[in-house]
Amino acid sequence: MIERIFRAEHGRAVSVLVRVFGDVDVAEEAVQDAFAEAVRRWPADGAPPSPAGWIITTARNKAIDRLRREAAREGKQAQAVLVNVAEPVEEGVVRDERLRLMFTCCHPALALQARVALTLRLLGGLTTAEIARAFLVPEATMAQRLVRAKGKIRDAGIPYRVPEEADLPGRLTGVLAVIYLVFNQGYGGRDELAAEAIRLGRVLAELMADEPEVLGLLALMLLIESRKGARMRDGELILLADQDRALWDRGLVDEGQALVRRCLRRNRPGPYQIQAAINAVHGDAARAEETDWRQILQLYDQLMGVAPSPVAALNRAVAVAEVEGVEEALAVVDGLDLGHYYLFHAIRADLLRRLGRREAAAAAYDEAIGRTENEAELAFLRRRRVSVCG
């Protein structure tokens, strides 16, 4: 139970304490101490009626005690009374403290890797070791990254607040990008990160329910996550067209599609909403052969109008192959500058295979194999290459 409360309430508790004390380190350490106290006391005494409130109150008291001890030791009596200063009430777009902390963690003054690490540490409550394992770096490296990021927040005076309404769209884009990056890391085989990204997406959707891109990102993650149970078989990747759709999580599909419908009613399209709509169309088809590829192509055309990118164009080429023909799709792919990206070579290899150009397909599969380290992807690509070459 304590672990569940930790995951659910760690971010809220840190957020409240940062607001009270104005120091990320003080807040984080106090919350850690409060949960350690809960581990000691709750098994014997039972959980309090309001576990979240108990954690916040206990953490606040521990932070006060710590500041008083430090003030007495250093002779800085002013520090001892700081905690008694009345908090100013800030009028903003929203009032929830978690949202303030989310925007602080994702401030553009911080490097992208630091934003991701801070978000997972402070809002998600993941340990430094867990974050380091997820991103395949040594724990000491991740610890230094977190220390530098928190130091930058302090030294640069990065404000602990939600941006003004005029600045919100640009800053929100950065927050959504961090959450989606966490999700993609999880979708690559680290389930705990995908779950954490969805949890953060739900928090953001609860706090910013009027922002359609927030709803769009949550819908996109839910629809992709719904296929997790069908995506692997015996350690090997299964393409969407070959998946057993009975294994899809229909609850997540229905929730994601409902969010897409809410977005459509807002009529303020953005890239996450459009990508979610594409995945919703896939979710409509009981069998791969029933997929409405024309609608998907239209949505990709809309995506290219709203947020053009080479990766979006590459994914659009898959729909082009189904609607306009494989030759037309290959021409699109060959016009893209994505030679560093393994999926570029994997998609190109599949198109060449379908055209019967076996030598060129085998060479493209070799290029793709050389550009990924994911074991499931490697197994799939190697099997496909064998099927091409015999």
From TrEMBL:
The keyword Transcription regulation applies. Residues 6-71 form the RNA polymerase sigma-70 region domain. InterPro entries: DUF6596, RNA_pol_sigma-70_dom, RNA_pol_sigma70_r2, RNA_pol_sigma70_r4_t2, RNA_pol_sigma_r2, RNA_pol_sigma_r3/r4-like, TPR-like_helical_dom_sf, WH-like_DNA-bd_sf. Keywords: Sigma factor, Transcription, Transcription regulation. GO terms for molecular function: DNA binding; sigma factor activity. One of its GO terms (biological process) is DNA-templated transcription initiation. Residues 102-152 form the RNA polymerase sigma factor 70 region 4 type domain. Residues 171-263 form the DUF6596 domain. The keyword tRNA processing does not apply. Gene3D superfamilies: 1.10.1740.10, Tetratricopeptide repeat domain (1.25.40.10), Winged helix-like DNA-binding domain superfamily/Winged helix DNA-binding domain (1.10.10.10). It comes from the Bacteria. Belongs to the sigma-70 factor family. ECF subfamily. This is Sigma-70 family RNA polymerase sigma factor.
